């Protein structure tokens, strides 16, 4: 039977397009924020319910949309940004494809209320599937777009969404990135009617620095290197971290091209090359960079999400980035720093060569004592004996970042943390594992991998001998790449990028005891198989772990990571 060719209906075509543009609630927020920016708004409000899964509302005081144009706003390939083919190659607006609202309206229920200055009253357009109603209403100049029941007509897509917390975290990251690209705009973000943050317009350099500090942290702003250079019509300015400020992932490399947030492999490679030899293996710098060049020199019409760009002269752009970042970094290095990090790099390589036999920071007895210390029956006596019996000092160092959390390191396992002036006892290893698991759960699958310098050979578990491809496929989803050398052995080639302290043999030893596992269990096992040295934690990592501590301290349910101390507990701890 020969299948006939037929034209797809607009509804199906829009849903296919939505699959490229709208991946999750954060994608909706990104598109609506860019529309508000293009409308010349100076005040934007984002109101989200249940992580954007139920409702997303974006309001602005921009130029608005005429009532007669509202039906066109949700029509495919309808835009006010371009009229001729030449316009496509000199775009200076965020949106231009005319796909965003049409894609959103095809997978959600949408209400648009808008009033331009030249119109006497506001108009409201309601869209639900093929049903569209237009009616007058009241509103000041500007536009409000309400998106509810995202993917209500695409249940398969909806099942791939994460929980409320993770989806909102993605939305918050989108809003923060937008806030750095448009500092002149006043921005508020609410979640479930609760104000998350409110950023006033940053019109002066000092105000911009304050906004950046709130988003990226004052530690970064204090340690960052500023650069502002121009060459051949290109300008690169912004802030980059020095060699001391490092992260275990590259999620804080924010680069804007002509005010547009991009994730361009060419620019990321240039940043990586500039830091070559200055960072530990598997570590990444932080950067906030603004790159401007003539619109005709860059093509933003590469992908519907507009995250990818193509440069007319990629080699010139790459070399400009690399040379200027390298020059800025070299200006802050002295000989002692160079020697120190050359030694650190070689030490890191040596550690990777012996990755199969990592050094543990605590033995089983210490692990048992830690679990007992944080159990509901814990007492200060147990902590005092645990600390003093091993000969550790009660106070070895203090850490106090801008989060106002102080760390008093009791030993290699326990820390005393002051959260909002209240003391907590925290299990540092359990806290680190919780932080790693939280990071991995937020990442899209498959997790990104980092190759090992020397592959690790491991005997194939008996229960997996008859289904080796299933094991290989499941491990690849969490960033562990394996190959089979013969019928009885496997070679471990890479580990997850965001789990640099993974004890590979411990992970596989526990895995061999399991008859069945899913992706979430593997991620949990990866987090529990981390072996690290607390002294190697960077400032950024400690700040992020403080955020986890804050969230745990606000929870009512019991856990074995941190516990609030009473006055009697503190007295006993200090005097015994």
Automatic annotation (TrEMBL):
Lineage: Bacteria, Pseudomonadati, Pseudomonadota, Gammaproteobacteria, Legionellales
Protein family (similarity comment): Belongs to the DNA mismatch repair MutL/HexB family.
Ranges where the DNA mismatch repair protein S5 domain occurs: 212-330
GO molecular function: ATP binding; ATP hydrolysis activity; ATP-dependent DNA damage sensor activity; mismatched DNA binding
Domain MutL C-terminal dimerisation: 406-537
Region entry Disordered, spans: 342-362
HAMAP family for the chain: DNA_mis_repair
One GO BP annotation of this record: mismatch repair
Keywords annotated in UniProt: DNA damage, DNA repair
PANTHER family: DNA MISMATCH REPAIR PROTEIN MLH, PMS, MUTL, DNA MISMATCH REPAIR PROTEIN MLH1
Organism annotation: Legionella pneumophila (strain Lens)
The protein, known as: DNA mismatch repair protein MutL
InterPro entries associated with the record: DNA_mismatch_repair_CS, DNA_mismatch_repair_MutL, DNA_mismatch_S5_2-like, HATPase_C_sf, MutL/Mlh/PMS, MutL/Mlh/Pms-like, MutL_C, MutL_C_sf
Compositional bias annotation for Polar residues: 345-357
CDD domains: HATPase_MutL-MLH-PMS-like, MutL_Trans_MutL
